[in-house]
Design a protein that fits this description.
The protein is mainly α. The protein is built from 8 helices and no strands.
Amino acid sequence: MTSRPTEEQRRSDLARLRRIRDRIDREYAQPLDVEALARGEHMSAGHLSRAFKTAYGESPYGYLMTRRIERAMALLRRGDLSVTEVCFTVGCSSLGTFSTRFTELVGVPPSAYKRDPDRTPAGMPSCVAKQVTRPIRNQEARPPTPN
């Protein structure tokens, strides 16, 4: 029989998960792995993965990749870096994995995304544009709109 965590334990776990999520947000371009993130908060990797998914709806790795793809989208919209440069700038070490994950989340390959200058409507505030262009998780990307 397992005991249920106390309210204090749940609050402590949530605080640790927020610190981990904040670290991912800050250090997305650095090499991060679940074991190192868990070790930094004195948790096991398994417990971190389960608790993070329960709290935020995706694994720590999935969250990290979403942050990287969001940043890549902004860099590609800017237009002054190649897809390869963007890949390495956001912390990915494999162009193939980056392109595959980008396509899964955004619905188009990064090269096609870079070529399309009309991704964000002109005059849209950046806070709204970020929400509209946010990558969709779990391979639910919208199909590209026909021209």
